[in-house]
Amino acid sequence: MSALATSIRDSSVVAWRNLMNIKRNPDWLLSSTAQPIMFVLLFAYVFGGSLGGEAYREFLIGGIFVQTVAFNSAFTVIGLANDLNKGIVDRFRSLPMSRIAVLLGRTTSDLVISVLTVVIMSACGLLVGWRIRGSLLEALLAFFILLLFSFAMSWVGAFIGLISRSVEVAQSAGLLWLFPVTFVSSAFVPAEAMPAPLRAFAEWNPITVTADALRQLYGNPLRVTGPPPDSWPAQHAVLYSIGSALVILAIFMPLAVARYRRVASR
Known about the structure:
ABC2_TM_bact-type; transmembrane; mainly alpha
């Protein structure tokens, strides 16, 4: 059997093991869906009336999708840190299995969670008035971009989980950086309304551009009021969102693998 086939086989076993852990601890899945549903209801019905009403709800869902899969990377952080803390990684290291299987299995299982979360969030969005107004192919491309971004973010989470000294540190580190990155974007409000330094960051923020790419492909409004964004990332949102996800993967996959080898060789 080739090395690639062995890595895929071993990774699928690890991914299945991770999913079985969620089956035994369903509160993990509940937490990944309860928070985005809360954000949808809060922004759609509490703030939505002053931000644009029904048009804002369609604008909102693209941002909620991106925020949700970004926050799901915290599962990768905590899952890896927990396995390290309990000695599970040492047990895997003693088995005749591919070295990358632990990381690829973890990120793959978290991608499955993101798929399920997106399905639930799509149903929630339909209930509050969101609709897909583009073509079927555009909608499928939008979901592909969303899951590609989710997979990229899980590798960021894998690296953070491997450098965290404990599960408690991982819980903080996994979410602490996500809040400013997520909220300094156009996930919830237009970047054009922000002060100049924050606006510059928000316009090039992958979360902003991925949300705009989803809105464009779903046929949803890019902005509730005012003209559409005219920055280069916004004008090339689909291309930039795919490119930024690939760049994140190109940076954090080698970093995570190198860190895992250091941890596993101790």
